[in-house]
Fold this sequence. Notes:
Oligomer: single chain
CATH architecture: Orthogonal Bundle
Number of domains: 1
Largest sheet: none
Order of helices and strands: HHHHHHHHHHHHH
CATH superfamily: UbiA prenyltransferase
Number of helices: 13
Amino acid sequence: MFERPRQILQMIRFSHTLFALPFAMLAAVMAWQIPTSSGERVEFRIQDLAGILACMVFARSAAMAFNRLVDRRIDALNPRTESRHLPSGQLSVHSVCWFTVLASAGFIASTLLFLPNRLPIVLAVPVLGFLLVYSLTKRFTSLSHFYLGASLMLAPVCSWIALRGVELEANPADGLPSLVVGLAVMLWVAGFDMIYSCQDAEHDVKVRLRSIPARLGIRAALRLAALCHLGMIVVLALLPQTALLAGPEVPLGWIYHAGLVLVAVLLIYEHALVRPDDLSRVNLSFFHLNVVVSMGLFFIVLVDLLS
């Protein structure tokens, strides 16, 4: 009875929702705690929290299922991925198609929770379309890592829009903090996706897929990933200064900056784990450390804003 749902959750790697969800919640906490231009705070509503959680889960589930569908033949050619659920026949194309449709419908329906803010409803289909297109990008551009980063960048940006849509319509600069967090997310994701893609560099060249490791080589890809993560730290360090650009003041202090130093140390350790001639610890670098980074940043911002 529960075997098929369990296989579907394994297929979409449901646990990897922990990469983007903390950043969506980080932006939500900021949106609730930072006063608007009128000096008031956005009202906390449990339905808004439920909407953010539901949209994140449904959107990522739809995107991952679609990715597995369109990549099933490519996955079948790769020794690392040939045992995935679709290439190995554990799940049928028909069932995954239906799951993708239902998850997409769930995402669109979840935006109704943000009413009377209509912006999430208006943006639901364009956002979903943007997320699904990622699955095709490795076929035509080596910048697919940055497209993936831009997809996860939408997590904090969309959370902000969902909670402060009225303020944004009156004052577009109000969205600057979410854009800064989003840019940091994009650089972070692009960096760790390059590291992860190093495992498939030879295969990508063989089957003519585009990626930074396939185009520039593993050593150069790891260096570029390190630059992306350096850029992430710099961008996050500038987050409290967004008020200088006519956006809302972000009251983050020493707790945030001390936590950011710890995040930088974690990222340095992540890169120390992976070498051009030894990719055996990529999975440790990819999942465990990056979950700590995303969850850690969320709790650091939460503690700082509430202290």
